[in-house]
Amino acid sequence: MIQDQNVRSRVPAFYINLDRDVSRRVRLEKELSAANISAERISAVDGRGVPHWLQSFYDNRMGPGEVGCSASHLSIYKIIIDRGLPWALILEDDARIEKDCLNSVMHAVRAAPSDWDVIRLIEASSRPVQRLVDIGRGRALVRYLRIPRSTTGLVVSQSGARKLLTPRLIKQPIDVEIRWPWQLDLNVYGIHPPPITQASGIEFETTIAVRSMPRKLNQVRRVIFNMRKMGIVPYLAHYF
């Protein structure tokens, strides 16, 4: 137990929660406790009134829910940088956490290449994945041919936080920015099978009322990016 508590105290973790969503907060905190994770609550940003330092990132092309979700994540990336954290676990309040999540995160961080930016913990890809390292209990660190949606559970490194805070006009929701890693040259990995799922039901319906429809993905850019990151031969071996 002492060892578990020490691991728990060493893992920087945050979760995003709207002030009005008390029931979600209570449920997630129970999940965190059961998974031996100590996380700091971050009040979700209202997309209709983002903080002054973030206003230049957004215009009117995304809905308030999308802006709020994106700005909430960027607020945590700023905390990672300001506190000098090497990495942090980031959860949204509809996360369902497997009991071995903390163990999987620690093993994945140790096994990941030194230049990793994001390790996804949510949603398996429907496409083939490149298995890099077995991390125990049937899970592996992987690289995706096509990155799945959702930012319900992520691990973001110091370098990833800096890339995701690059000054720019944000045109897509945060999950799309991570799905299109060539835009910020993100090194995105994942844990497969994922140790986090998304809660479902009326209580957990999305707070994003209308989701922007991103433009069609540039398949050529994805192929070139994947070949550069994975290597031509490994990419072709997994693609065909």
How would you describe this structure to a colleague?
The chain has 240 residues and is of the alpha/beta class. The protein has one domain: Spore Coat Polysaccharide Biosynthesis Protein SpsA, Chain A (Alpha-Beta Complex), CATH 3.90.550. 35% of the residues lie in helices and 20% in strands. The chain contains 8 helices and 10 strands. The strands form 2 sheets. The protein has an 8-stranded mixed beta sheet with strand order 2-1-3-8-5-9-7-6, sandwiched between helices. A two-stranded antiparallel sheet has the order 4-10. Helix 3 crosses helix 5. It is globular, with a radius of gyration of 17 Å. The relative contact order is 0.17. The mean pLDDT is 90.
